Amino acid sequence: IRGGASDLGVLVEYLHDGRAESEPLTVFDDDVFVGARWALNDTQDTSVL
Predict the structure, then answer these.
(1) Cβ atoms < 10 Å from Cβ of 47
(2) Distance of CA 9 to the CA centre of its chain
(3) Residue 14 · residue 32 · CB < 8 Å
(4) How far, in Å, are 7, 16, 17, 18, 24 from residue 27 at the CA level?
(5) Domain positions in the chain
(6) Are the C-beta atoms of 35 and 11 separated by less than 8 Å?
(7) What is the pLDDT of residues 6-39, one digit of tens each?
(8) Full DSSP string of 1-49
(9) What is the C-alpha to C-alpha distance for residues 4 and 38, in angstroms, rounded to an integer?
């Protein structure tokens, strides 16, 4: 990050439920997941997900 010794990774996932309209109704038809991973690249290999 900005020339430093750490890395930042971004995770994005989209899920679309394409089942037929005759199937039972769910609240999980269109889902989005967003996350990040911060790795410090130190001697202990510290990272936060």
Answers:
(1) 14
(2) 9
(3) yes
(4) 35, 11, 10, 13, 10
(5) 1-17+29-49
(6) yes
(7) 888 999 999 988 888 788 877 778 899 999 988 8
(8) -TTSS-EEEEEEEEEE----TTSPP-S-SEEEEEEEEEE--STT--EE-
(9) 12
